[in-house]
Amino acid sequence: MPVSSRRTKIAETWQPSPEDAVYADAHGIGDLAAVAEEFRDYHLSRGTLMLDWRAAWRTWCRNQKKWGRGAAAKAPLLNGEAESDPFGARAFAARCPYAKPGTLDGKTVPSVSGWDLVGVLVEVCEVARLTPDWRGDLAPVADWLRDGFDPEQIVDVIRASKPPREAGSWWWYERAVRRLKQGVA
Q1: Are 86 and 121 in contact (CB under 8 A)?
Q2: How many other C-beta atoms are found inside a 10 Å radius of the C-beta of residue 75?
Q3: 86 and 165 share a domain?
Q4: How many domains does the chain have?
Q5: Phi, psi of 105 (to 5 degrees)
Q6: Are 169 and 175 in contact (CB under 8 A)?
Q7: What secondary structure does DSSP assign to 68-110, as a single string?
Q8: In terms of domains, do 145 and 95 share one?
Q9: Tens of pLDDT, residues 67-108
Q10: 84 and 174 belong to one structural domain
Q11: Which end of the chain is more exposed for a tag (fewer CB within 10 A), N or C?
Q12: In this structure, are residues 138 and 85 in contact, taking their beta carbons and an 8 Å threshold?
């Protein structure tokens, strides 16, 4: 959706788009409807003019988490972060440049090539025997999905491989995963 070159008021019927909902979920917004209503009413009551309402929504979501308002139901506790976002999968998916909104069980989720990105990342990390508090680079796994590899095949390759010395060293599995394209695995 192109951004207008002139400022506009928010529509009285404004609702977050599926992409906005994914962004909010990834940033710990627990009650999307309540936060969206607060955002809309705040700007309607002030007659706010904006160039880009989607950017305003993203800022609102980040500020909700930063200031602790409206995010309590989903905001991870510092010592409980591993349980609420194992391996940092949700945080990674929120900033993955090629993740698009998809639907899983009626819920909007970040997806890559039609696969639930968070679900695949968690499963791959579990098979790689990482602990839920591990916070490393997940980009190679997302790249494999983007390049058309089936998650089940990726999991099988990792399960059959000797683990690397350093946890989360995805390069260790890279050659074996890429060989799937050649049917060699």
Answers
A1: no
A2: 17
A3: yes
A4: 2
A5: 50, 40
A6: no
A7: TSS-TTTPPPGGGHHHHSGGGHHHHHHH-TT-EEEEETTEEEE
A8: yes
A9: 554 433 333 434 455 668 999 999 999 889 889 998 888 888
A10: yes
A11: N
A12: no
Q: What mean pLDDT is predicted for residues 52-73? A: 70
Cα–Cα distance measured from residue 148 to residue 70, given in angstroms and rounded to the nearest whole number:
38
Structure tokens of 173?
Answer: 């599995």
| Strand 107-112 versus strand 115-116 pairing type | antiparallel
Tokens of 111: 């997806």
For residue 10, tell me if it sits in a domain.
no
Whether 95 is covered by a domain: the verdict is yes
3 state DSSP class of 150: coil
Give the per-residue pLDDT at 141: 95
Q: Mean pLDDT, to the nearest integer, of 37-49?
A: 87
Domain hosting residue 108, numbered range? 78-182
> pTM above the 0.70 mark?
no
29 touches 64 (CB < 8 A): yes
